[in-house]
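We were asked to recover a plausible sequence for a given structure. The inputs and outputs are reproduced exactly as logged, with field labels preserved.

PROBLEM: sequence recovery
POSITIONS: 246
GIVEN STRUCTURE:
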């Protein structure tokens, strides 16, 4: 799926961990030095935590290509996580491994789960001896994300570094800016209504000089109760930008 978006800052945008910025294509490449981590908190008091995630990649024309993936956790009251049977989102089955449900785009479905064109998306949990069957439609959408605007594509750790969103991000409650360097990362959380953030030299000094990834995560958090269980579902959109740290 592609969407036209006006680009007002000339910054190279990377997919997943890195992405080659080409005129008419969205070519992913593997990271060489910079590693990223997913932002997937488990919310206290929730019996199920369900993530619908769009990774959005932009090319030079600022067209965005979304790739949908999903994560699900079923925390146990004592410790660890439960199995809840078969878990689906938009009729796509999530794989269960090491007490975690997940789905990633693959060669048979490179664009992953289509969250944008389907409107409200649905979760289906078949249930198990430890968790009841649950089926519901999400009443909120995945946030529609745009390219980021920064003071520079090179971070000078001795100077402040500003970042903002190009446009207001619809359907987002919160934003999370993360700067991943080769050996460490820093982050800042913002209300979606006040997206401008400035990282100070005291924060930037913790980063390692060299190539880095700037990530914007826009999300909304929603809670409902079904069949005696409290479910928290989170809709996320993510986009990454290549930067340098000196």
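RECOVERED SEQUENCE:
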């Amino acid at each position: 799926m592609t969407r036209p978006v006006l680009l007002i800052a000339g910054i190279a945008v990377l997919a997943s961990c890195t992405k080659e910025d080409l005129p008419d294509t969205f070519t992913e490449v593997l990271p060489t030095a910079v590693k990223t981590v997913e932002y997937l908190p488990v919310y206290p008091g929730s019996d199920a935590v369900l993530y619908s995630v769009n990774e959005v990649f932009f090319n030079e024309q600022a067209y965005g290509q979304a790739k949908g993936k999903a994560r699900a956790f079923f925390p146990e009251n004592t410790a660890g996580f439960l199995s809840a049977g078969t878990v689906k989102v938009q009729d796509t089955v999530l794989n269960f491994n090491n007490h975690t449900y997940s789905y990633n785009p693959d060669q048979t479905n490179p664009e992953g789960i289509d969250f944008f064109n389907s409107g409200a998306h649905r979760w289906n949990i078949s249930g198990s001896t430890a968790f009841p069957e649950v089926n519901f439609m999400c009443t909120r959408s995945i946030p529609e994300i745009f390219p980021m605007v920064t003071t520079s594509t090179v971070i000078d750790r001795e100077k402040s570094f500003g970042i903002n969103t190009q446009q207001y991000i619809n359907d987002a409650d919160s934003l999370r800016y993360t700067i991943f360097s080769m050996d460490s990362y820093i982050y800042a959380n913002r209300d979606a209504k006040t997206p401008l953030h400035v990282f100070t030299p005291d924060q930037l000094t913790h980063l390692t000089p060299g190539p880095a990834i700037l990530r914007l995560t826009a999300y909304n958090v929603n809670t409902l109760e079904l069949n005696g269980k409290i479910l928290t579902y989170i809709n996320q959109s993510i986009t990454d930008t290549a930067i340098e740290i000196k």
